[in-house]
Amino acid sequence: MVMAELETRRWRTSDRAKTAVQLMAGWVALLWALEVVDLATGHALDAYGIVARDPDSLGGILAAPFLHFGFGHVASNSVPLLIFGFLAALGGVRRFLAVCALIIVADGVGVWLISPSDSITAGASGLVFGLFGYLVVRGFVERRPLGIAVGVTIAALWGGTILLGISPADTTVSWQGHLVGLVAGVGTAFLFRPERRQAALTP
User: Fold this and answer.
1) Whose CA is closest to 38, among 162, 108, 123?
2) Handedness of CA 102, 34, 74, 40 (dihedral sign)
3) Who's near 65: CB < 8 A, 6+ residues apart?
4) pLDDT tens, residue by residue, 100-155
5) Has residue 199 been placed in a domain?
6) What pLDDT was estimated at residue 172?
7) CA 46 to the chain's CA centroid
8) Distance between CA atoms of 106 and 109, rounded to whole angstroms?
9) Sorting pLDDT into bands at 50, 70 and 90, what band is 170?
10) How many domains does the chain have?
11) Does 202 reside within a domain?
12) How far is CA 24 from the centre of its chain?
């Protein structure tokens, strides 16, 4: 009976990993496909980014994370999005999509509010920074050793890059989007933590 349960758990873990790989591979492929369309249309899709404090660009809050300013921009976001997205999606696809949706909306609203006037912001980096914050904090919030190990490893490998990305000194990137995304990701780790079940007391 115990062996059967172990085999079932292994199968579920393998199935989750396969689903996470497929989901993130498809997600990144979509980003590249959209950039191909953008190039073919003379960069017409760039207009759907977020224009700070422009009411007409509020729709860009949802569109901007899927759009980029050139293939170099897409490439810089692809690898961390694949890795962070895969690790986050291992916790369940529904939960992952809910986390991404909250990060995207919070980040987009923040960019719309605090970015420089008339600036246009697009790219998946806000989501990347959000997933980074989510993964680093999640293990500690849920008190799971494996999650803590994942968070510490990610922080050690990418922490320096993240700190540079939220520095106002670099005016070539949207540090506002990076910062808001990071904060939103940390917030989602608390918001989406599973409820701890209390053991029933028996007389």
Assistant:
1) 123
2) negative
3) 104, 107, 108, 122, 123, 124, 126, 127
4) 999 999 999 999 999 999 899 999 999 999 999 999 999 999 999 999 999 999 99
5) no
6) 84
7) 21
8) 5
9) confident
10) 1
11) no
12) 11
The residue range of the domain holding 110 is 2-191
Residue 197 forms part of a structural domain: no
183 part of a folded domain: yes
Q: Indicate which CATH number applies to the domain containing 105.
A: 1.20.1540.10
Which string of DSSP letters, residue by residue, matches the chain? -HHHHHHHHHHHHHHHHHHHHHHHHHHHHHHHHHHHHHHHTTSGGGGGSEETT-GGGTTHHHHGGG--SSHHHHHHHHHHHHHHHHHHHTT-HHHHHHHHHHHHHHHHHHHHHHSPTT-EE-SSHHHHHHHHHHHHHHHHHHT-HHHHHHHHHHHHHHHHHHHHHT-TT-TTS-HHHHHHHHHHHHHHHHHTPPPPPPPPP--
CB 165 within 8 A of CB 180: no
* Cα 107 to Cα 112: distance, rounded to the nearest angstrom: 9
